[in-house]
Amino acid sequence: xxxxxxxxxxxxxxxxxxxxxxxxxxxxxxxxxxxxxxxxxxxxxxxxxxxxxxxxxxxxxxxxxxxxxxxxxxxxxxxxxxxxxxxxxxxxxxxxxxxxxxxxxxxxxxxxxxxxxxxxxxxxxxxxxxxxxxxxxxxxxxxxxxxxxxxxxxx
Length: 155
Known about the structure:
Layout: E1 17-21, E2 30-33, E3 36-45, E4 55-62, E5 68-74, E6 78-82, E7 85-95, E8 98-102, E9 108-113, H1 118-128, E10 133-140, E11 143-151
Antiparallel strand pairs: 1-6, 2-3, 3-4, 4-5, 7-8, 7-10, 8-9, 10-11
């Protein structure tokens, strides 16, 4: 009987978010606000009411778009916290609006677009001047984006 069961394979690796009690969140930490991964900019706690929990008011900026999101949640409830990783890559080339990057381990990737706005212009201008650049990539919730650029230190 157990032999005829069929399972579809799930996604391997860590989940995109993990739960954390609202009262344990801190300013400059990360939290999911209205399904967007956000950095907490402001936090305030209201006192308990006649019938209830203390409420935590969260204000955060989306880590990819910088849009502002707000939410209120009881301090004893859990909120989703995104798994956020930062990785530095060496910039090898810019081709067709995409960054050609190399990790410390020598692996290359060409799947990230040049960011829009001032950061994208800065990366292109500094690369055109033949500067050796390191690009910081932020990853959360299946989304990756360049968030910073710095000159590569020569060892």
